[in-house]
Amino acid sequence: MLVAAAVCPCPPLLVPELAAGAAPELDALRAACLDAVAVAAAARPDRLVVVGPAAPPRDGRYPQGAVGSFRGFGVDLDVRLGRDGAAGARPLPLSLAVGAWLLERTGWAAAPVEGLAVAESLDTDDCLAAGRELAAGEDRVALLVTGDGSACRTLKAPGYLDDRAEPFDAATAAALGSADTAALAGVDQMLARELQAAGRAPWQVLAGAAEGAGLRGGLLYDGAPYGVGYHVAAWS
Length: 236
Prior knowledge:
- With 236 residues, the chain is an alpha/beta fold.
- 34% of the residues lie in helices and 21% in strands.
- The longest helix is centred in the N-terminal third of the chain and has 16 residues, at 27-42.
- It comes from Streptomyces luteireticuli.
């Protein structure tokens, strides 16, 4: 059963070494992410699953100990999903690598960790089913859900300005802040794709996992510092 969830965005700039001189601009976002992870740890789960978007063939399961790297961004920095090694595991996609970095930053030791990368094109029903599968059974499960909102909030945003982006992000923030699983399940898949909202599929996995769990949510951060919607929420 799902006992807690932390919802965070996954921009590479969340990692200060990648942001360089711009690092202080995201200090409030980083602090909110660490607070959300702390809420998940306080629930004392039996296992934690990091869920994030990835393009095939990088989607699928990742075992504890899988390694991710930020070397492609010019920084000599590797991260590990949990503490133990997993020989031969494929490298983590970026969204799970950012999640692993957050866990390392908090010194996560509350429970074993595994990863699930979700294809951004995965249909809503399949996302919900994947979430239900994660939460099935009697063990206490927590999720760290990573994914960004729309990428169309300003003229300089990656997806340019789209007037639909701000209301889309506002509705998403409200749903995440109130742990409204029905609202998350109802996020329009086509609209999310047009607005380049990579978090849609992971949020709907969360919605499936949290069905009937009775969790309460709190919104810790909601902004678009680079024209991309970033939301941080904690469910417990």
